[in-house]
Write a structure and sequence with these properties.
One of its GO terms (molecular function) is 3-hydroxybutyryl-CoA dehydrogenase activity. With 288 residues, the chain is of the alpha/beta class. The protein contains eleven helices and eight strands. Helix 6 links the parallel strand 7 and strand 8. The structure holds nicotinamide-adenine-dinucleotide.
């Protein structure tokens, strides 16, 4: 199956860090994009943020003012989910919770046309479970972008047991047409990158809990000696502790409580306190 035609409408649900980035990527590729969030005003706010970011690229002569205006003109904030009915591809990037995502997919199945692809940006949840119980489970596929979506090339195209192979191929081609480097994977807990990354977070958090060293030292070691772009503490502050903790819990549960994936109580404390990282101004570090 070929890539989605650039004139086809793409709907993005969830105007947080990932939804805003994905909407920007689709609009940069030429699609009309509708951005919906159930928090009133959030979509318009996210599009303002994209506009400001594009403005910085114009200042650095990396984008023309005309291109900036054309990208922003393709982004439409919508306040009612019903407005997404004409989309050819819906990408959901809402909270990492199986039941909430399943409820949304059920709603979309009744709303969108039968040939609309329903993609999920979930980091770890089973695509097979997300699709189960729908009338057409074959059209549910994972399209997992990385943070920040406009900059990170990798996209995991995740097939569940019922996912239609031709649609997965089409989504793979679409990701390529959007300038990304997609990879096919099966729906296994955490898929590829989040599975491999779990020990990086878990062992760093255990070292902190055991008092081996502070966050800044551990981060610096991972960067300077380990060759990682970011240490685990600065990276989880960027990802958001609510999201990172939910992903760890989901992988831990999916592997029947395997100790390797055990969630960290230190991170749970941050989530309970609302210290979600950069997005709340406070995580392991302070961003005030
Ligand atoms: P976020 O908290 O920044 O944004 C989530 C947005 O979804 C919020 O604006 C919220 O208002 C909205 N929302 C929640 N429930 C909704 C609903 N029922 N209907 C409509 N809108 C709803 O979260 P995020 O970091 O953007 O993550 C979103 C998804 O992307 C999650 O599934 C997460 O696992 C995945 N993901 C996150 C990252 C990351 O680094 N943060 C990377 C890849 C994938």
């Amino acid at each position: 199956m070929p890539a989605l035609n650039a004139s086809a409408t793409v709907a993005v649900i969830g105007a947080g860090a990932m939804g805003a980035g994905i909407a920007q990527v689709a609009a940069q590729a030429g699609h009309p994009v509708k951005l919906y969030d159930n928090r009133p005003g959030a979509s318009a706010q996210a599009i303002d943020g994209i506009d400001r970011q594009l403005g910085r690229l114009v200042e650095k002569n990396k984008l023309t003012a005309e291109a900036r205006a054309a990208i922003v003109a393709r982004l439409q904030p919508v306040e009612a989910i019903e407005a997404l009915a004409d989309a050819s591809l819906v990408i959901e990037a809402i909270v990492e919770n199986l039941e909430v995502k399943r409820g949304l997919l059920r709603q979309l199945e009744d709303l969108c046309s039968a040939d609309c692809i329903l993609a999920s940006n979930t980091s770890s949840l089973s695509i097979t479970s997300l699709a189960a119980g729908l009338k057409h489970p074959g059209r549910v596929i994972g399209m997992h972008f990385f943070n920040p979506a406009p900059l990170m090339a990798l996209v995991e195209i995740v097939s569940g047991l019922a996912s239609d192979r031709a649609l997965a191929e089409g989504l793979y081609e679409t990701a390529k047409a959007w300038g990304k480097q997609p990879v096919h994977t099966k729906s296994t807990p955490g898929f590829i990158v989040n599975r491999v990354a779990r020990p990086f977070y878990a062992e760093s958090l255990r070292l902190l809990q055991e008092g081996a060293a502070g966050c800044a030292t551990l981060d610096a070691l991972m960067r300077d000696a380990g060759g990682f772009r970011m240490g685990a503490f600065e990276l989880t502050d960027l990802i958001g502790h609510d999201v990172n903790y939910a992903v760890t819990c989901s992988v831990f549960d999916a592997y029947y409580g395997d100790f390797r994936f055990q969630p960290s109580l230190i991170q749970k404390e941050l989530v309970d306190a609302g210290r979600l990282g950069r997005k709340s101004g406070h995580g392991f570090y302070s961003y005030a």
